[in-house]
C-alpha cells in the first residue's frame, strides 16, 4: 500500500497572499545592501549616532549614482546565523534611526539627495530599545523627513514593517518591488491578536491587503517596480538593473521641481494617504 495515501500526508494549500510573503522573505532574495552595492559606486559608510552607539542593523553612507553624489541608507539583515544575530535580524534600535537622521542632515547640508532601502519586519521592540526612546526616534525621523530640503526616495525591497519602515520612508517617492510587502504588523502577529492563533497567518495575510498592488491602490506607494520572472531572488543583477532604472527616472523627476514645491507635495501626499470617503 502506498505511503502517501490519505489526506493526512497532504501539505496544506498555500494561499496566493502567503505565496507572495514567502517570496518577499526568500532566503536568496537580495537584501538592501546588495542592491546598493550593485546600483551605486564609491559607497563610504558613516558610523554612529553621536549619542549612544553604532547600530549595525542600519548602514548609511555617501555614494554615487552615475557620478552624482547621494546619501544611501539600507538596513542590514545578515546572511548567516552569526551575521543575523550581529545585525539584530535587520530590526533597528533607536540609535539606528538617529544615525540615519544624522546622515540625512549631512546630506541636506551638502544638498545631496537621500535614497533609502527598506527590508525589515519592524523596529526592535526590546526593553533596551524602548528605554533609549524607540518611539521618539521613529517619530522624530517621520517629522524631519517630511520637511527635509533635498529630494528623497525610498524603496521597499522585501518587508516594510510598521513604524520601523515608515521612519525611513517619508519621502517624495515611495517605490516597492513587485513581490515586496508594506504592513503595520506581520501576518503572524495579526493572527495571534485577531484569532488568538498564529497558525491563522494565511487568513491574516489575505485580510490585511499588504501586497504591492494592494498598497498601491491605497496610495501608500508611488510605483511598483517589476522583478525578474519568478522573483528578485532568481536574478540579483537583473533585479538591481530594473530598480536602478526606476531610481534614475524618479530622481530626475523630483530634482526638476523647486524644493519648496517638493516639500509641499511630499507633505500633502502623506496627509491624503489611505483616506476613505463616504457620500452623505
Topology:
Layout: H1 16-24, H2 32-39, E1 41-46, E2 58-65, E3 68-75, H3 81-86, H4 94-109, E4 114-120, H5 127-131, H6 134-146, E5 152-161, H7 162-166, E6 173-177, E7 181-183, H8 187-194, H9 201-208, H10 212-217, E8 223-225, H11 236-255, H12 259-272
EC number: 2.1.3.15
Subunit structure: Acetyl-CoA carboxylase is a heterohexamer composed of biotin carboxyl carrier protein (AccB), biotin carboxylase (AccC) and two subunits each of ACCase subunit alpha (AccA) and ACCase subunit beta (AccD).
GO molecular function: acetyl-CoA carboxylase activity; ATP binding; carboxyl- or carbamoyltransferase activity
Task: Characterise this structure.
This protein has helices spanning 16-24, 32-39, 81-86, 94-109, 127-131, 134-146, 162-166, 187-194, 201-208, 212-217, 236-255, 259-272; strands at 41-46, 58-65, 68-75, 114-120, 152-161, 173-177, 181-183, 223-225. It is globular, with a radius of gyration of 19 Å. With 280 residues, the protein is an alpha/beta fold. It catalyses: N(6)-carboxybiotinyl-L-lysyl-[protein] + acetyl-CoA = N(6)-biotinyl-L-lysyl-[protein] + malonyl-CoA. It is found in: Cytoplasm. This is Acetyl-coenzyme A carboxylase carboxyl transferase subunit alpha.
Amino acid at each position: 500500500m502506498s505511503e502517501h495515501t490519505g489526506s493526512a500526508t497532504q501539505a496544506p494549500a498555500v494561499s496566493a497572499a502567503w505565496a507572495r510573503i514567502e517570496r518577499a522573505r526568500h532566503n536568496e532574495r537580495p537584501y538592501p545592501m546588495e542592491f546598493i552595492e550593485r546600483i551605486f559606486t564609491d559607497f563610504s559608510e558613516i558610523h554612529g549616532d553621536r549619542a549612544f552607539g553604532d547600530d549595525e542593523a542600519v548602514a548609511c553612507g555617501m555614494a554615487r549614482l552615475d557620478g552624482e553624489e547621494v546619501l544611501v541608507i539600507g538596513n542590514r539583515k545578515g546572511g548567516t546565523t552569526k551575521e543575523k544575530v550581529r545585525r539584530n535580524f535587520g530590526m533597528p534600535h533607536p540609535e539606528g534611526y538617529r544615525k540615519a537622521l544624522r546622515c540625512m542632515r549631512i546630506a541636506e547640508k551638502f544638498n545631496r539627495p537621500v535614497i533609502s532601502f527598506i527590508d525589515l519586519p519592524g523596529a526592535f521592540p526590546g526593553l533596551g530599545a524602548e528605554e533609549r526612546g524607540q518611539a521618539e526616534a521613529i517619530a522624530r525621523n517621520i517629522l524631519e523627513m517630511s520637511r527635509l530640503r533635498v529630494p528623497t526616495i525610498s524603496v521597499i525591497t522585501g518587508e516594510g514593517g510598521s513604524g520601523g519602515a515608515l521612519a525611513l520612508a517619508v519621502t517624495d517617492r515611495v517605490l516597492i518591488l513587485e513581490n515586496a510587502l508594506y504592513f503595520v504588523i506581520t501576518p503572524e502577529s495579526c493572527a495571534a491578536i485577531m484569532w488568538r492563533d498564529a497558525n491563522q497567518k494565511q487568513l491574516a495575510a489575505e485580510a490585511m491587503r499588504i501586497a504591492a498592488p494592494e498598497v498601491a491602490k491605497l496610495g501608500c506607494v508611488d510605483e511598483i517596480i517589476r522583478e525578474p520572472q519568478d522573483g528578485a531572488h532568481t536574478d540579483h543583477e537583473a533585479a538591481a538593473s530594473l530598480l536602478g532604472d526606476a531610481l534614475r527616472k524618479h530622481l530626475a523627476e523630483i530634482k526638476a521641481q523647486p524644493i519648496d514645491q517638493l516639500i509641499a507635495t511630499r507633505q500633502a501626499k502623506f496627509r491624503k494617504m489611505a483616506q476613505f470617503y463616504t457620500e452623505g
